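Appendix B. Raw example, untouched.
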Amino acid sequence: MSTGKKYDNDYKVQAVKLAMEIGQTKAAKELGLSKSAIGTWVRNARTGKLDMGDDAITFTKPLSASEKLAILEREMKALKKENRELREMNEFLEEASAFFAASRQKYAKRKE
């Protein structure tokens, strides 16, 4: 029963806040959304998939194993990407260093 509507991040954040205050069922009814949509947004907020910005929410219910796994997988993916970028940057800097060292030696030989 998907309506195909796209909601921006700010709307989702406000909906999650409302759901945490009055409950998911009431928030869904008040906003004219399905309970599953609100539930998905709340779950995404809990696991970090939904960018809450500075609007941090304290969730009283502990994370489930699948939510913890999702968080760890996302963190691992980000760390692998950062590691790859740092390796590429390091390789570039090594090549640049070798280039400038060689040109410095040529310049020093010409001065002699």
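End of appendix B.
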